[in-house]
Structure formats: structure tokens, C-alpha cells
Amino acid sequence: MSALQNLRSTITAQTTRLAALLPRDDWLVIGGVFAIKIMLMIFGVRSYHMLEDEPLPPHLGWLGIWNRWDALHFQRLAQAGYNSTDIMKAWFYPLYPWCVRLTAYLTRDFLISAFVVSAVASVIAAVILRRMTGLDFSANVARRAVWFFLIFPTAYVLHIGYTESLFLALTFGSIFAARRERWWLAGVLGAFSWMTRANGIVLLPTLAVEAAYQFWKGRRWNWQWLWIGVVPAGFGVYLWLNWRVAGDPFAFLKMRQQLFHMSFSWPWVGIRGAIGNLHRNPNEAEIVGGEELFATLLALGCAIVSWIKLRPSYATWISCNWILVASVTFIESMPRYALTMFPIFILFGLLGKSRFWSAVITVWSILLLAIFSSLFIRGWWVF
Amino acid sequence: MAGGLFDRYDVNETSTVVAATRKLLSRVPKDDWLVVAWSFVAKIVLIVFGVVSLHINNNAPLPAHDGLLQIWNRWDSVQYLRLAQSGYSAAGPWKAWFYPLFPWSTRAVAAVTGDYLIAGFIVSAVALAAAAVALRRLLCLDFSREIALRAVWFLLIFPTSYFLHIAYTESLFLAFAIGSIFAARKNIWWMAGGLGALSWMTRANGAVLVPTLAVEAAYQFWKGRRWNWQWLWICAVPLGFGVYLLLNWHVTGNPFTAIHMRKTVSVTSWAWPWTGIREAFRNLHRTPSQAEMVGAQELYFSILGLACVIVSWIKLRPVYAVWATGNWLLFSAVTFIESAPRYTLLIFPLFILFGFVSENRFWNGVITVWSLLFLALFSAVFVHGTWAF
User: Fold this and answer.
1) Contact yes or no for B373 and A371 at CB 8 A
2) Is this structure's pTM higher than 0.90?
3) Which positions in chain B touch A370 (Cβ < 8 Å)?
4) Which terminus has fewer CB within 10 Å in chain A: N or C?
């Protein structure tokens, strides 16, 4: 009996010690990420059954239904590596597939590995977002910002074999480190971020503006700011990979035009194109017309408000990301890219102080999250 | 621009209008306005969502006339609007199967709007706003403001809450039923009886108000040891059923036709609850879609309802526990459980319990995400024209 009591008190003491490692709100965020992940997986299975009227695929079907579009490419890259005979050559940035490959040494399954990498990254991203928002705003605003981030209509990509969660974990880490004046960490995480997605480039002006803001506030030069110069090292790895695979470090630039039939242009060209898409058939009008347009305007609105309400570095991040994604001849996947424009969620967190607006954003987000997820798992293109 | 319409108003008159509006607003508690606003926002977002999901899933344009609302005019809704428009008829297969108050209300409103579909939506909109306010006020009698608000929130986002906005009877029924219980709690028994009668004129579940109000009266007697003649107003509740019997007699010549019809129009008959639950388990072996709809979901919601019944007897006032138990038995004590997710919506004590649980932020998030994900899924299936409870 006393042994049992000892065991119980030991477990209680260990649990308390473990819980004390992180602030309570971090545990709440971690619990929230996993709860939403589990519910989305269950929802995926249910909606697949209901809408497709088919049983799940045989091997790990409940995960397999999420293995679509870019996820397939990342899986293949993790499994077989980059290949010059492949039509995509070195188009995809390497850090995510390399992480999946590394994890697969432990799990012995590339699909599971992809989900593990995204799970760990999404937890880190959510925790850092909360802490970062907490630097400027109340705990309530920070919690709400994370909530709106996790339920955003395209938030399902945070949980599956896509790069968004890893990219955001590294990006948030980099900006948070800069805010805490750990510039070496900001530079290194920034380099990893750019090794994950092209948008990593936006960290250069973002960190530079943060440094300038700190200079403006303190009127004191900090040599540590030069660590920002490390960020392009991530892109250097990408260029090296392109050279290695395609024989030309800038092969990806030519592929953009060949693979996606789009090139850089003024934002209004893409927006006009999206308005034109409203006249397509109802499905296309909704996906490549209405939703692209709405996300583009939402992000633009938030970019403008960010310059008034938020720190200049956050405004720089959202503005440059918006320009990067919207300044093309054909706007594509804006609802997914908007997920990486985190100041949107801080603004939602501020707006959500009103119960009314909190309800509006919550209902809108989760209803669309459900419909986009249900389309995605059935193999339809949704951003 | 002298002589213009707006020139006739001076500053004093404008401030009078503003003052009058403020006075009107201040008469109703701020939280009532909040739940009314929620109910309308939920409606607008859901209607927009219906259009988006129809476009995306079906790749179909909206129907030409009233398309925005028309896509929600499915299943029972079609019957109610037909009854509102053409009245009951002995020639139809349904005769007087459907309770009359919703179609009659729709007909009355259509006399103003000139459109039966719009009228159906207006009746449900007004009823839902009334139900949300009544539920919030009812819960404020026993619980904190926060729990009351959260309970209304969970009612409005429940996976089958789309029925509250469309031409179905759920919102009108809930408005009367919750109104009746609220009146009983406030000791306005004539109103409890009157609203109870209207409730039973809307749906068969109105029968549950008789034991519910009786238990409330017994509880009040137990607490105060004082007889109240007003309790006899409970006897007014069956008047609603009387109207239904009269209607059946008028349409078919037999007041009990609807009871005999149950076997023919519905595949189900009374049985012990485990019979229906066993059948739902068997349905899990159907095709994936059917296994999900008439198997898993019916089963989950039956179990959720049962759990709510059990916890209600421990945590809540007996009146709520009786309401939950009576309603749960009514849909589960059958050979084939059908539409349990929709009927669970009527077991409003469930939302009180959700309100308790969600005091913890984590569970608040979990219930909200679960509710809205499945609200989206069921709504998408419904506007597609497929049966969804």
C-alpha cells in the first residue's frame, strides 16, 4: 500500500515538475494544437465516408487521404531524393523533405514521418506565436491570435505533409529571437526558414526593419544585427541544390513560367484575373475566383491596418508577403499563403475582444476550414 | 437645398430619435442583443456557406427563384411550405401527419411577404431569436452570465443547428418550449400552460412539457410546502395536441389517423431504447456513406443525448433532467433510430452542460471546433439534397 502511495506521489511530483517547465498558456496552446489535429483527422475520415461513399485506402488510410498535391512531391523527395530526370527537378525547397527523411529513420514510414514533422513544427509555431503576441498585447489577445491561427480556413495544411508548419515555426522563431535581441538565433532560424519556402526571403526586410526600429527606439548601434546577413544562407543551399540537380542554380526561375504559366506583374493584374475567374463554372468561380479574391483583399486590408496598429516589422512581413504572392499574372493559393501572414491573427485577436466579432470570425473560419478540408481529402485542388 | 426632405429635421428632433432608440435599446439587456445578433450572424454566415458549398461541391449554379434560400428547402421543409400554401388535404399521402402551427404561422406571414419560402425563413428567424433570448434568461436564473451566454452559443453552432434557421419546426418549437419552462420558473403558470399548448401544436415532443412542468410544480411544492392553484394551468398544454387531433379528424375523419400512420409513413415503431441502438450498430456495416449517416452519427448523438440525460439528473434542476429524459426516450425508444442528431438539438440541457464544461478554455475550443466542423459537413450534405437528419 505504501509502495503504491509512493508511486502515486512520485508520478504527481514528476507531472507537476513537467507542467512547471512551461507556462500554463503554453500547455493550453499545445493541447489546442493536438485537439484540433485529432478532430481534423476524425473529420477527414467522416467526411470522406459521407461525401465519397468509399472506404478508406488500405494502408494508414486516415493519413493517406491527406497525402495530396504538394504532399506527394514532398513524400517522394523525402523517399527518393531530388532527381534531374524529374519534371519538378529542384523546384521544391529542401528542408521539409530532408526533415521527413531524417524522421523516417526512426518511424520507418515516410507518411507518418511527414505528419510527425508537421505536428512538432505546428506546436512550436503556435507556442511562439502566443509568446510573441504576448510581448505587445494582453494574454487574452495572444490566446485569441493563436486560436484564429489554428482555425483559419486553410489551417489543415499545418497538420499534413506540407511545409507551412515548419516554415512558420522557423519564421516565428526568427522574428521572436530578433524581438528578444538574440540576433544570432534570428539569423540562423531565418536561414532555415528560407531553406523551407521561398517566402523566407521576406525575413530579410522584416529583420532589417526590426533592427531599424530598435535603433530608432534606443539610438544605439548593435553589431549583432549583422547576423541578418546569415538568412540568405538558406537560399544559398537552394541555389546549390538547383545547380546540383539541374546544372543551373537559377533553374527554378525558368521552371516557374513552364510549370505554372505565371510570371511577376503588378498586383492589379492578378486581382483583375481573379475577378475575371468569377465568370467561370460555379466550382472554379468559387475556388480560383471568389476565395482567391477574398483572401487577397483580406490580406491587403490587414497589411494596411498592420502599419497603423502593429509593430513595423510585422507590417513589413505581411506587406512583403502579400506583394510576393499577389504580384503575379495569376493569383494562386492566396488562402493558403494568407496563413503565413501572421499579423492577420493578431488583428483578429484584437477584433475578437468583442464577443460578437469573435463569434463571426470563429464561425466563418471553421465552416470554411471544414469545406476546404473535405475537398482536399477527396483529392480536389484547394489552394 | 432648401425644401429637401431632410431639412425638416432639426438637431433637437434628431437627438430625440437617438434618445428614443437608446431608450429602446436599454430596455433590453445588452446580452439579449448579443444573442440576437449571434443568431442573425450565424444565419447569414450559414446561408452564404450554403451557396459556397453548393457551388464547390455540386458545381451547380443557384436555382433561379430565391436560390439563396431555395437550396435549404429540402425534405420536411417542402412539406411544411406545401401545407402553408395549400393547406391540409385528405388526398395527400401525409394527410395531417405534420403538426400545424409552423405551416399556419408561415401562411400568416406569407400574407404580408407574398412569398412562402421567405415567410418560412422569417418565422424561423424570429422564433430562433426568441428562443436564444429565452434560453439565456432562463439559465441566468440558476447560473452565471458566462455559462448562460456559452450555452446559447453552443445551441447556435450545434452540428444540426441549420434546422433552426430554415423552414423546419425546431426553432418555433424551442421558442415555445423554453418560453413555457421559463414562465413556469418565473411562476407565471398561465403563460407556461399557454406556451406549452402552442409548443405541442408545433411538434409531438410538446408532450414532454406535461411531465416537465409537473415536475417543476412538484419541485416548487417540495421547496415551499405550499399548494399553488396556478399549477393547474399545466392542463392547458394538451390543448395543443387537441388541435392536432381535431385537425386529423377534420382532414381524415379520424382524430387518431396520425397515430395509425406512423407504421406506414415511418419505418419505425416503439421499442426499448437498446433495440434502436442495436440497429444503429448494425447500420455500421452498410455502405460507407450510410454507415456514417444512419449508423455512426445516429449512434454518437444517441449516446451524447443519453450521457446528457444521466448528468442532468446529477447536476441540473429536475425540470431540465425530465425534459432531457423525455425527449431522449421519445427518439431513442424506437425500432430504428432516425434523426437523433436533429432531435438532440431540442435537448437544451445539453447546452447548459456544455456551458459548464467550457469554463475550461481547452474544452470550450474542443466543443466549438467539433460543433462547427460537423455543422459545415451536415449543412453541405443537406443543401446538396441528400438526407441529413
Assistant:
1) no
2) yes
3) 372-377, 380
4) N
